[in-house]
Amino acid sequence: MKKRDNYFDNVRFFLIFLVVFGHLLRPYIHTSPFLYALYMVIYSFHMPAFILISGFFAKNIKRPGYIKKAAEKLLIPFLIFQCVYSVFYFWIDHEEALSVRLLIPEWSLWFLMSLFLWHVLLLGTVKWLKNPFIALILSVAAGVGIGLVNESLTVLSIGRTFVFFPFFLAGYYAKKEWFQPLFRMRSRIPLFLFAAGLFAYCYTHTTMQIEWLFGSQSYAALGADGTDGLLLRLFVYAVNIVMIAFFLSVVPHKVFFFTAWGRNTLYVYLLHGFFVQSSRRVETLELPPSLLVLFGTATVLTFALASPWAAALFRPFLELKRPSFFIKKENKS
Q: What is the pLDDT of residue 288?
């Protein structure tokens, strides 16, 4: 059995925490420059970093049956939770009729759809484009160009799929030793200064459109013409890259009690939305809770949903497998 890398498990665990924390922050970012800046900084790297790491672990893409396994792992949970979330919104929003849209992912489910499509795009890319540099340039061109399409980019999460594919592709080409320079002090200091500068800028410029970090809308929908949209997308890419480097440089390598839980990020990603969306509809939460409360709530949710007990409980629904404690009992008998 291949030994797991503690560092990358830590990376995934901290990233999924930031996903939960960011979603909890969202309703309150316009009540405080600090919360706005914190949200912008988190969104400048957390999903691109997640996508890059996902690509890093897709190096077996050429193996027979890889795409089939990816479809089973990603599309089945997508279909299940697309229906579950549709029923959930129907109930919590008191809608008149139940509507299940299979082509437009509900809220955070875009990631599952895009992750499957990234695997498909990756297979085609490495099969037909042998030069990594050309492949990356073309992926960036597609990511920038998709913003010129004025049709809906939410169908099959097509907008985010092309916008974020360069990170998935870069992760695939990356080698473990390429991360080593990030852990040196001469890299960490300038990266920290950049992150601090970004926070300070966002703190003093609270009218910037956060949607530029989502990658889900056309330039026209964001109020930009073609030329400005192309330049702004390239600028966002540059910020994404530096902030990913900053985040990866500060993640610890040591083993924590939750390190192995980094492999359970899918459970957190799919399940935390029920709490987040419910909390957004509670009238008593109209005033922003303290940052400590939001941080603590995100911590509790992440620990609870990433724990091996949650994984054992929800594995039958997400992976169509029997709970692990049943399997252990059978093995002992």
A: 66
Chain-centroid distance, C-alpha 187: 25
Q: Taking the model in full, what pTM does it have?
A: 0.91
Residues 161 and 184 sit within 8 Å (Cβ to Cβ): no
The pLDDT score that the predictor gives to residue 331 is 45
Separation CA 176–CA 319 (nearest Å) = 29
Could you give the 3-state DSSP secondary structure of residue 73? helix
CA distances from 137 to 45, 48, 125, 179, 241 (A): 20, 17, 12, 21, 15
How far apart are the C-alpha atoms of 13 and 252, rounded to whole Å?
Answer: 11
Backbone angles phi and psi of 217, in degrees to 5: -125, 155
| Residue 95, token pair as written in the block | 């809608």
Distance, CA of 152 to CA of 172 (rounded, Å): 29
Q: Determine the Cα–Cα distance for residues 107 and 48; give it in Å rounded to an integer.
A: 17
- Tens of pLDDT, residue by residue over 85-102, are 888 888 887 677 787 788
CB 122 within 8 A of CB 61: yes
Asked if residues 256 and 67 have their Cβ atoms less than 8 Å apart, the reply is: no
Name the phi and psi angles at 269, rounded to 5: -60, -45
Structure tokens at 1: 């059995």
Question: CB of 157 within 8 A of CB of 117?
Answer: yes
Spans of the chain below 50 pLDDT:
1-2, 325-333
Torsion of the alpha carbons at 25, 31, 35 and 37, rounded to the nearest 10: 120
For 319-324, the CB contacts below 8 A with 24+ separation are 319/73, 319/77, 320/72, 320/76
